[in-house]
Here is the input.
Amino acid sequence: MSALLKLVQTEARLFVRDPVSFLLGLLLPTVLLLGLGAVPILREPSPDFDGIRFIDYFAPSVIVMTVAVIGLTSLPAFMAGYREQGILRRMQTTPVHPAKLLAAQLIVNLLAALVATVLVVVAGRLVFDVPLPGNPFGFAIAFVLGIGAVFALGMLVAAVAPTARAASGIATVLFMTVMFFGGVYLPRFMLPEAVARIGDYVPPGVQSLLDTWNGDAPDVVQLLVLAAVAVAAGAGAARMFKWE
Here is the structure.
C-alpha cells in the first residue's frame, strides 16, 4: 500500500471521528434541506420563483453551504493545526514528504464534499421530488470549477495562517461571505440587485449551479472567473505555504 493511500485512510478516519467536520460538513446541509422541505408552503409553486417551489430554488444554495463548510472551515483548520503542532516539520525528516499529507487532506475533503453533495441531491429527490440537474454536464463543470475555487481559497488561508485559531478566524470571514452571496442566509431574490450580481461570481458560483440545475447553460464569464480564482489562489497557496 502506498504512503499516500495510507495517509488518505488515516485522514479519512480522523475526519469521520471529528464531530464538527462530520456533522457540519456531511450531514448539516442535508438536514437543512429536509427541515426547509418540511414546511408545507415551501413545497408549493411560487410566482416569486417563476412558478417553481422554494425547495427546488434553494437546493443549489445548500450545495454552496456544503462546499463552503468543508473547504473553508475543515481544510484550513486541519492544515494550520498540523503546522502549529509541528507535524509537517517532523514529516520532513521522514521518507514521507509533508506534501503527501497535504495531498491526502485535499483528497479526503474533496471526497467529503462530493458525498455531502450527493446526499443533498438524493435526499431532495427521494423526499421532496426535487428535480435533478437539468443540464448535468454543465452542472458538473460549474461544480468542479466552484469547488476548485473554494478549496484553493481554503488552501490559501492554510498557507498564511500561523495557527489553527488564526486559520479558523480568517476562514470564518470567507465562509460567511460565501454563504451570504450564495443565498444561504437570505434567498438571492431578496438581495439587492447589485449584491446578487456580485454573488454570481463569488465562489462556488451559485448562479451557475442554479442555471445548470434548471437546465440552462452556465454563463461562460462566471465559469472563467471561478477558474481564475482557483488558479490564482492555488498558485498563491503553493508559493506561500510554510511547512513550519
